[in-house]
Amino acid sequence: MDVAGDQESASNPWCAVHLPQGVLLRDIENDDAPGLYLIHGNPLAYAHDPSETHPHLEHTRAFLAPFRAHWDTFGFGYWTALAPEPWWPSGAEGARTHDDGRRIVGLGGIQTFDLQGTRVLNAYFRLAPEVQGRGLGTLVLRAALACAAAVEPHLDVVVRTRPANIAARRTARRVGFADEGTVPGDTSMQLLRYRVAGG
Known about the structure:
Strand order of the largest sheet: 1-2-3-4-5-6-8-7
Radius of gyration: 16 Å
Helix content: 25-40%
Number of strands: 8
Distance between the termini: 26 Å
CATH architecture: 3-Layer(aba) Sandwich
Order of helices and strands: EEHHEEEHEHEE
Structural class: alpha+beta
CATH superfamily: Gcn5-related N-acetyltransferase (GNAT)
Strand content: 25-35%
CATH topology: Aminopeptidase
Number of helices: 4
């Protein structure tokens, strides 16, 4: 993993993270909305949360706005994930010059989150069904943990997902998250936690 970034993100290396297989994670921008709508508007991407499927592009734009604001406030957040064109030829091409023709294939990363009165980092990833099964979720979560260790080393990192989402739970456990069962007071959500040293 290379977090050195390119010239446009030199002041904050977490704005552009280069992963194996030509995958790029970079900060979200407004022009990513159409490409991300291709994913978030696909019911297959929300198999465990069908009611969360985005009904139209403006919904996706509104969905992304607080994520961009988090970047502006904290200097880290959820990334737009881009992969080489052969991964998903019909996916939307990234808007930035340094995207180099990669296709937008999902979102992932960490944001600050209040978990029942305790400040933690929430790890998230949602990927196009067309690129699932390639280990991309694992790469994104590992990058998220590396970012967490750099920007908020004293905070636990959590993954919250539906109990039926076995694939996401398995991916989280693979990179070191412990499955703590359902969220206290909310049996509709499963909680997995990566505890910091001494936590």
